[in-house]
Amino acid sequence: MKRILVQLFSLAVLTAAATAQKNETHTFSNAEGQTLEDRILKYDFEGKQVTLEKKGRVPLKSFSPEDQEYIIRWNQVQGFQSTMNFKMAVRKRTWGQLKYEQTITPYYMDAVQVAGKKTPNHKIIMIDDYEEYSAVLLEADGFEISFRNQNSFPIENLVVESKVFYEQEIYAMPDSLLISSQNVYTDVTTTNKVRFLSETIPIIIPREEITMYSECAIVANHQLDRSVLVSTSTEESEDGEEDEDDLEDDEEEDEEEAEAIEEATETIEGFGDWDDHSRQRKGKVIGAWFRVGIKADNGEMVWRELTEPSSLSKKVSWGSSVEPDTSKTVNLFPGK
């Protein structure tokens, strides 16, 4: 046990020394204008004592007001960079879901633009031999990041930036219903999107826990199935065999259904193969990237970064060139 404690103490000393080596020499001054070039090793927030590399322990009040601010800022940066004293954790959250389903009889609309008329003439033909099921599932997905300040002093003016990366499939829609026979509705195009948010936390006092949230990614999953309404039910006699009259009736019904389907297909000739018009598009969240920063004494930002999942940085970068999440309106009637 003693050996473990000694090793931990040695590691802490080496870490502190490595940190001290990274600290820049600063020219301090007092109220009388006397100056001293030295490097900060430690600051005791409760005792208001500064430990310098050359001078040793010096009371905070001995320094000029500007240097006091410098020392306090240096101490906050050190406390913020400590993963043991300033803890951060990221979790994925689903904030809402909405599902809309409906089953309808599809229709074909024939539109003709007549010269001199602003509104085109149109005719709607109901396709009674088909049934169309449509379902849309919308999910509001995002991430939360929690902070816990376990330092004995407050951390001020934290900047929290987040990016949510996600994919959304969109349909390769035709430009016009009149040329839809030339399009395959199952074609989809995947787009990469990102939502960015930046906020500031004025202060986190000791032992305080704060939760912040990323932007919300609205992911849509759409399923559309179009099927032919064909009855396959048959009646059987008590001995398990179908009656001849029933068989004849079934054959007649099958012929009538086939003729009806053929007639419907002829009615919508030029509108494509309706059996191929089932379609589906999906979306998914790839992950979130959080950057949390504090301004150092030299004016530059010191950042700590977290990603969920941890492998996200292998797929994207913070400066990834992705499309902004702007809504797109598909106009099925060009010129209107």
How would the blueprint of this fold be written?
Layout: H1 2-22, E1 26-29, E2 35-38, E3 40-44, E4 49-52, E5 56-59, H2 65-81, E6 86-104, E7 107-112, E8 121-126, E9 130-149, E10 155-171, E11 188-204, E12 209-213, E13 217-228, H3 244-267, E14 279-281, E15 283-295, E16 301-308, E17 323-324
Can you describe this structure in just a few lines?
It is built from three helices and 17 strands.
- Global geometry: elongated
Mean pLDDT across all residues, rounded? 76
Radius of gyration, in Å, reads 35 Å
The computed structural class is alpha+beta
Number of strands: 17
| Percent range of helical residues | 10-25%
> How are helices and strands ordered from N to C?
HEEEEEHEEEEEEEEHEEEE
Poorly predicted spans: 1-21, 175-180, 231-238, 264-272, 321-336
Major β-sheet, in short?
Answer: 5 strands, antiparallel
